[in-house]
Each structure stands twice: as structure tokens, then as C-alpha cells.
Amino acid sequence: MAASFAVMAFNSLYQYSWNVLGPMIASGLEVSLIKVATAFSIFAVLSTVSQLALGPLADARGPRVIAPAAALLSAVGFLGTAFSRDVIEFYVAWGLGSVGEGVLYGIASNVAVKWFPDRRGLATGLVSLGFGLGAAVANPLIESSRDFREAALAIGLVELVALTVIAATLKYPGGLRGVSVSKAVRGVSWWLLYATFVFAIVPLVSFSSSLRPLTGLRGYLLSVAVSLFPLFSGLGRPLLGALSDRLGRPKTIELSLVVIAAFSASSLMGPPQLRVASVAMVGLFGGAQIPLFFSIVGDLYGEAFSTSNNAAMYTGKAFSGILGGVVIAALIEDGYGGALVIGSPLLASLLMLVALRTRRRGR
User: Fold this and answer.
1) Residue 222: C-alpha distances to residues 13, 201, 213 (Å)
2) pLDDT, mean of residues 169-197
3) Is CATH 1.20.1250.20 correct for 2-360?
């Protein structure tokens, strides 16, 4: 659990430090923020595809060989960024790092899914807590750096030394049972759950990539929001995970999605202080969605193939990443960004109801 938590803390820098690193990279490479935002979509796509490709291998042979190699790729992503001479080299470096981040995310999450079936929500949430806290600690340090190269070099060197060693300690239990991904995807309920996941995390990804243009925050309040968002995203994971162990995963997800829509709306209007508080609440409830969905997949389809099954579910983040990356950037320019971050969780809540009814009918 402790090693998985540490891995998640490093992983969080690829997503939750983007609001700090993105503008710094755009300035340093002298390109538009929209061009740099393409790298965020590359991250979303490759971090999901890598899980799908290597998840079956982790389920079959365990993570001890794959995880250190993925940690090395994650470090290369930051080191390559530090030495990028243009935006294309940055895309390549960030893409390689995204592959490593994705594999590590899937393995670390499923350590909790596999080892703690009775308290799966809490365990998965505690591991995922690192995904918020890591960036909350790192973001002020990144902001104090002279430029993106200094920050990326420091992160890359620390990952090269520490993350590879930590990743080598991860392991899975034996004697597990479950439904393989090839069987799971044959059911209609799987695809309804998949669509629910895609729309459920659009606000989380959108605020990760475009917090400043969405909320209009500037200066000190923007810095506060950028720090609070990943912090609350981390804190919400064990809190809502523990709640889901008692209330049930479906009800917890449905209620939290409605809350996300409400706070997404209040983050776009009203006094700046209200917007900052609303951003924190979007983080609190939005950050919990991924571990909640990983847990419900474990509940419904068992633990033996959970890395593969959750990797298949996590590919939905690629679509969420496109919606919350390039699409939200374009919609914000046209004045329609709010419609996406408010409407997506409401649609997801309705889809969850349909998915559960379909599941009960055995489809």
C-alpha cells in the first residue's frame, strides 16, 4: 500500500501539475497554449492505451518486472521535456512518459483492488490519495522554478533514482478469481458503464487542463486554486471510497456526479472566492470517480483480471482527455466550455442508472 501510494504521488505530476507546467512550457518553447495542450491529449490517450496493452501481462506474471521499466519511462518523459528544443520533441518526450505513467497507474491501483476486497473502496481511495497529494506538494516548487526546464529536470532525476526502486517492490496476491476482459466486454452493461466513466471524469480532466480559462481566476487566487484542486482530489478518494463501502458503489457514484455538476456551475460564476471553493469541491468529488469505477469493476467482474479489466475501462479516459483537452480549449474560445463541464456529469449520472438496470437483467 505504501509503495503504491508513493507511485501515485509521482504519477500525479503528469496530470495535476499541468496547470502549472503547461503555461511555462508554452512560454519557454514560444508556442501557443493550444499547441501545448495537444500534449495533454497525448498523455490521456497513451496513458490509457499502455494500460490496456500491458495489463494482461501484469495480471499473468505480476508487476515486478513491468513496473520498474514503466518508472524509467516516466522519468524519461520529464528528462526529455527538460531538453526539448521544440514542441515536437516535447510531444515525443511527454508521450514516452505518459506510457510509463499509465502502466504504473494501473498496477498501483490494482494492488488495492486485489489485496482488499472487503474494503476495496477505502483501500483504492487511499492509494489514489497519492495522485492528488503528490502534485499539491510539487506545484509550489514548480512555480518557484526559473523555467520549465529546471522543474522537469529536477522531477526527472528524482524519478530516475527513487521511482524505479519503489516500483520494484509492488506485487499482487495469488489465487484470485474473476471474469476476463474478453468476456466482460460482451455485455451491454459493460459498455454503458464505460460510457458513464467517460463522461463522469470530463470535469476532472477539463479543470486539470484548463482551470484558468474556465474559471477566469488570476494571480494569487489562481495559485490557491491550482494547489487546492489536486489536494482535494486526493482527499476525496479515501473519503468517498469509504462511503461507497457502506452506501454502495452505484449510489455513491450517482450522488457525487450530481454534486460535481453543481460545483462545476458555481466555479464559472460568482465571486472569485466562491469559484476557488467550487474548484476544490470539483476536485474532491471528481478525483474520487476513477478509484470508484476501478472498485465497481472489481466488484462486478472479480480480482483475477482486474488490471486488464480496469485498463479496458480506463481507456475511456482517452475520450475524456480529448473532450477535456483539445475540445474544451476550443469550446472555451467560443464561450461554451461551461456546457461541457456541467452537462457531462449529469449525463453520466443518467447512464449509470441505465447501466445498473441492464446489469440486473443479466445483459
Assistant:
1) 18, 22, 10
2) 92
3) yes
